[in-house]
Amino acid sequence: MYVSMSRLRVPAERADELVTAFRARARLVDEFEGFVDLQVWQSDRDAGELVMVSRWRDRDCFKTYMKSNEHALSHGRIDPSLDDAIKLERLEHMHVVAD
Prior knowledge:
This protein has helices at about 15-25, 60-65, 70-75, 80-85, and strands at about 1-10, 35-40, 50-55, 85-95. By secondary structure, it is of the alpha+beta class. The radius of gyration is 14 Å and the shape is globular.
């Protein structure tokens, strides 16, 4: 199992807009080889802090998706002003070593 976590920051007043965008996502990734699931978490303490967590069968599947037309199309749907407001604070990639 391979996990990608993106810690995102938006102004608190735009957090609902970002959550709505995730809920209305194109879902092109859902059928991509090796994709397991995607969740978006929001901080209870800070509405402007969100974490996007995607799980994959392995790193190669994730890397292939990140270079795909489906990824480009999905991100191309984001309103440019919202996209400009999103700041990537941290990106982490992890894999399961024990379960």
